[in-house]
Amino acid sequence: MNRRPLLSFTVCWVAGSAAGCLFSGRSLLICLAGLLLLPVVWAVSGGIRWRAAAVLVTALIMAALYWEYSEVRNVSLLPEVLKQSASELDEAYVTAAGVIASPVERDGDRVDFIVKLSGITPHQLEEEGDTETAGGDSRAGEKPGETAEAETAETAETAGAKGRGERVTVQIKLQEESEIAEAALWQRGDRVVIEGELNQPQTARNFGGFDYRAYLLTQKIHWLLKGAGTASVTVNPQVSWELSTILRWNDKARSVLGAEMSRLFQEPHAGYMKGLVIGIQKELDPETFRQFSQLGLTHILAISGMHVAVYVGVILVLLRRCRLTRETALTVTLLLVPLYVLLSGAGPSVIRAGIMSMIALLAARLGMLKDGLNILAASALMMLVWNPYLLLSVSFQLSFLVTAGLMIYTPLAAPLFKRLPGWLGSSLSVTIIAQLVSFPLTIYYFNQFSLLSVAANLLLVPFITFLVLPLGTVALLLGRVWNAAALLTAQLAEFLNNITFAAVEWVNGFTAGVLIWASPSFLWICLYYGLLYGLLHALKRRTEAMLVLQFMDDETRPLAELELPGNHINTNNQPDSPFTANSGHAAFTFQAYPPYPPTGATRWSNLAAILSAVGLTLLLYKGYNTGALEDGAGAISYLDVGQGDSSLITTPGGAHILVDGGGTVSFGNREAWRIRRSPFEVGAKTLLPLLKQRGIHRLDAVILTHGDQDHAGGLQAVLEGMPVSALLFNGTLAATEPYTKLMTTALDAGVRLYPVQQGMTLVPDGATRLNFLWPEPRSDGQTLLEEVEDQNHESVVFRLEMNGRSFLFTGDMDQAAEEAILRSASPSGITQDGPIDVLKVAHHGSKTATSADWLAFWTPGAAVISAGVNNLYGHPNSGVLERLADANTGIYRTDQQGEIELRVGKEGITLRHKLTPTPD
Known about the structure:
Layout (H helix, E strand, L loop, with lengths): L4 H18 L2 H20 L5 H24 L4 H5 L3 H4 L2 E9 L4 E3 L2 E13 H5 L16 H8 L1 H11 L3 E7 L5 H5 L7 E9 L12 H7 L2 E8 L4 E4 L7 H21 L4 H10 L7 H9 L3 H4 L3 H17 L4 H18 L4 H19 L5 H15 L7 H20 L8 H25 L1 E3 L2 H26 L4 H26 L5 E3 L5 H26 L31 E4 L2 E4 L10 H26 L9 E5 L8 E4 L5 E4 L22 H12 L7 E3 L5 H4 L2 H7 L4 E4 L2 E2 L3 H12 L3 E4 L5 E5 L2 E7 L11 E2 L9 E6 L2 E5 L5 H9 L14 E3 L11 H7 L3 E4 L12 H9 L3 E4 H4 L2 E5 L4 E5 L7
Helix pairs in contact: 1-2, 1-3, 1-18, 2-3, 11-12, 13-22, 15-16, 15-17, 16-17, 17-18, 18-19, 19-20, 20-21, 20-23, 21-22, 23-24, 25-27, 27-28
């Protein structure tokens, strides 16, 4: 506190903000009370003064109150202004007026931007002929845009008084290719009137899934406004200068620079270089991003502290070469840093680096020596006061944590590399520390870590930073001045990029080096950093002790070591006199010197290092193996994958079985201009992240009930992103390209394929058994797989027995298959040894299955229906719901309750679901 008061204050501010974020009400008061005790105890122990303790207590309280104040203000004004509930406004058709408050971005047939509203009018009021609107009276004889502006003027005034303008995310789906050019003219600052559907953002529908609503909440956005085509948007360009005009110019400059990059570079190099040089990541090839992400190299693709450091260093060198004075060079560079921050997109990491650079440059200009941690603390405090929700930003967390970690842990690790050449030891220590510090957040947010990440960062980061990045920048600067030189430079950069891409792809080929981790707890992360600090500190003390120079035989030794025979030693130490006279003889008095190296310090350092290493190893082992259930219980999760089907079975023995993988269904061949760079795909965006988030390192089996896209499509991403031991399918082929690709991927990955049929069983462990009831065995003895168009009838059906409980999985089976199973009940060994506890309703609740006879035979206690919200097929069918109700079967639906999870213990079944259905 005495050396770094600003750092202590910022740490308390972050702690108070985190308490306000994580807790509320009584829990927040208890948490704050515990935090407030820490400065008090510190002051009582004499570590800090009471005045300093009071400052820290104030920081904690102010931060928590500031967070609560921000939360109270971060609410939607529309329900109050329009006098309708949020549920009533959801899916309401409205006319909204406002100003574009973000860059306008297009991906395929969708255009996205943010609008700051000045008014909004529900269409239902107009349709009813009511002249009174939410914002005022309707006006006849005016143009549509002017009418909407006038009608919502009073609403805008009310909203502005309370919230200074509601922000909504606008999504315009283009209808024709010709609309691309029209949408390209829209810019930040334009006044717009939009007709479209108002929607609440989607919440997480699976446990541990991505919560889009919570994410937008951190951006202070509560609604989506979806329009159809450019005809739904009326645009009036900005005519007067405003503060946002600077950002408008910046958007245009970034667009011009991006276009120049596209002219100089071919794909995928253009998208890669845009992200590397100017921070435009939207055009980065998804496969390139995936491969870089797997090796922990995504920080290269985003403008960060490294880029700012290179930028500042180059400018200072150039200015000094121009014979400017040191003070002038520092001042000019200080003024140019904000320009680079804006041009690079102004993300949290580059803002942090920019603020730190500006403070450091100012301190150097004024001749003041400043501490790096205090500068970092000042940057964090300024950003959190500006926007407290930055605390929840992954980019913000990684940027500040890694920077602080390098400042704190690198000095501890430096002595470990003393025997290496200076440049190599420095590079190794910085790279290793950066990986160790970022590791907890990496596995928390991305649930994987590559053991080859350190080597990849050590080799590729300098290569990209000092070769590719400068070449890309030079090519961009030369583009309008010397085109031939710019193209030649771009070709050289592309050659180096090809080397980079090949190296990344080659390293990623070692799939065994990629480890999947469950998201750890906050306590686990804190223990990790504490044990890491203890280990490095102990190793530093031990290394420094071992590096102390030993006294050579020919050196003068301390007097304490000259105890020769015959010498008289006076043991009465007299500190003030180096020697005394005794009986006429010189009697030396010595002060004890510690041995070299100090054996006591070395012994304690060794013990501390061993204890820290053991504790860290146990912590990592526990964190890596958190997916297993306890008390001999198993689990079944009926995942919400939209209009599709996917279930995860975890047996009491720890085996993981995935039944189907959902899939995004597309209708017909889409035009090329409509295809998005990174479209939503259930397997890659929902299913695979969920499996990783739960710490599943390998799937022991995947059961593909049949080849329809809404069951098989998501498995492609699973096979590509996770080890799979076996794939069980219905023994037929579907004549579709995705199905063929799926089977080819399985064969290439060495996955064992098993066609299953009636009468087969699978026994993962002693408490679990799968009895396959369908498809029926083939009597013709044919060994070649047959293409079958009607995959529903051939769906794999099996009965799962786990801890004495029974569950029936039915895929998309039809009524004909149900009747066939019932007819063959006795011959196939199917008996009524008790009712089925839970029935997975076939075909998303379609009327083609789940007959009364089927329910009467199995008498299920509960039924789960997997269907998408407001799906086009009308699933589940009302007749099926009536039959289930008549059979006294409890009904659970993923479209209403999200993921439905069953914990199957020896005592019974415990059920929970992610969402609470709203009453009709």
